[in-house]
Structures are given as C-alpha cells and as structure tokens.
Amino acid sequence: MTLSQKLLDNINSLYVSQNTEREIILTETNKNYSVTIRISGDSDVILIKNIEDLKQKDLPYTFGHFMPKDCDYILIREKKKEIFFIELKSEKSKKFKWEKNDIMAQLCAGEEWARHLIFCSNPDFYQFEEYRKYFVAINKKDLKKCLIELTEERNGRKFTFWNGRSFNLSEFK
C-alpha cells in the first residue's frame, strides 16, 4: 500500500485529502483569502491541511497548554518524491520581512507535522529523507514575484518567500 493510501485511510479526511485536479485553492480561513496553485504533469497530490484545528481538537495529550507551531498546508507528490510546506500570509511588505524567522519556524514545524502524521499512519515508512522538500511562504499580493532578498538556506533547507495569488507549483523549486 502506498504512503498516500495509508495517509488517506488512517488520518481523518478533515486533515488529509487527495487532489487530482490541475488547480488547488489554498484558503486562509481566518483572514478570508485564498491562493491558487496550478499543477503541471501528474496532478495526484496529497494535501495535509487544517493542522491548527488538528492541534486544538485532536491532540489531547497536550491538554491545550502547549501548541507547537505549524504551517498552513503540506502538499505531497509521492510519485515525484516531493513535499511542499506552505505558509500563507496577508501582510504589508515590511511586516512580512520582519516575520521571516517566525515564518521559517512555522515551515520547519510543518516538516515535523508531516513526519508525525506519516508515522501515525505508516510507522514502517523510512523514505522521508528521500523526498525533496520545499519550504514556501506566500504573501497575498497582486504582483507575483519571488522575494530573492528573503530567500535563505539554513540547515539544508531552502526557504523561498513569494508575493502573489496564483502560482505554478514548479515555480517553488
């Protein structure tokens, strides 16, 4: 059984879903905006979402006293062995730059959530390190561009920061 199938079978559909469409709309529900991601080639993607809700509702072992950070979305392309960790923001440019380190921490936390959910659904899965990982922050703006001055590599991870509302997934590589 594939990793995708194990995630879909073992994790509540509120948090894990399969997408086979060419476009995925990622929504920031608290701030009522969305970003569109287009997928070229094989569009079979596992989408991990609503991690904030998962923490609040389904992690009884934390007793609500400590809630670890998380990112907004995790996209897994199993056939291509790629994982995209995505954090959505709607901030003024200065605040987006000012929050860079916190955003990077959220994206790294997303990696830990992916490991945790994969472990909970498939404890014998040891190929996580074989996947290419992309850490992406998107600030909802009309003009699309990569903010090169914020791009950073740290501890073997490359973090990219973008302005825009619509992207092709391949742009994040």
What does this molecule look like?
The chain is of the alpha/beta class. The chain has one domain (3-172). Helices cover 25% and strands 32% of the residues. The protein is built from 4 helices and 11 strands, in the order αββββαββααβββββ. It has helices at residues 3-10, 51-58, 93-98, 100-121, and strands at residues 16-19, 23-28, 33-38, 45-48, 73-77, 82-89, 132-139, 145-146, 152-154, 157-163, 166-168. Strands 1, 4, 5, 6, 7, 8, 9 and 10 form an 8-stranded mixed beta sheet that branches. A 3-stranded mixed beta sheet has the order 2-3-11, with no helix packed on it. Strand 9 and strand 10 form a beta hairpin. The longest helix has 22 residues, at 100-121. The protein starts with a helix and ends in a 5-residue tail after the last strand. The mean pLDDT is 92.
CA radius of gyration:
16 Å
Strand/helix succession? HEEEEHEEHHEEEEE
The helix/strand class is alpha/beta
Helical content stands at: 25-40%
Give the strand tally: 11
Mean pLDDT: 92
How many domains make up the 3D coordinates? 1
Strand content: 25-35%
Cα shape = globular
Report the biggest beta sheet as strand number plus sense, adding barrel if it closes: 8 strands, mixed
The low-pLDDT segments are none
Count of alpha/pi helices: 4
Distance between the termini: 28 Å
